[in-house]
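User: Hi! I'm working on a homework problem where we have to compare a predicted structure to a textbook description. Could you give me the structure for the chain below?
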Amino acid sequence: MTECVGCGYCCMKTPCDASRRLYGNIKECPQLLWDEDKSRYICGLMMITGPVGEGYREELYTGAGCCCGLNSWRKDVRKRTGIELSSNLNPLPKVMQIFISCLAKEFTSTDKMVLMLSRLSSELKKDGYDESEVELIYNNIVRIFNDNRNSFMKGFMG
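Assistant: Happy to help. Predicted structure tokens:
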């Protein structure tokens, strides 16, 4: 368990039971709010005062920490764009996801990956992809790569 950084990952990927009880099966919980001043997401249910708020804080284990310590959003806390949130979209075909997973298991340097992803981003922009689409594709590749990379290779720069 690690401290919650307010990345929004848990609430966006798997809404809590309280959200499902209140709003049914919706894509975005209206209680998940972006706090500009703190540059993080907060839960509106946590802000309710009195016994009702206490009940939500107890039910949702406020202060217990994050159990998704490996998710890449923890290192990139920001307000997520609509395309990132729409039905947990991963724009990469399954075969491409498998290829990236296999590539991650090879002895590929971080430098090489950065150069390849930079070139890919440039090529996508030339091909007419807009900035948000390129960013989504880039972030999904990085996430898949990091999720599948052997830990002993994570610091390899050669």
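For your comparison, note the following. The chain has a mean pLDDT of 82. The two ends are 33 Å apart (CA to CA). Good luck with the assignment!
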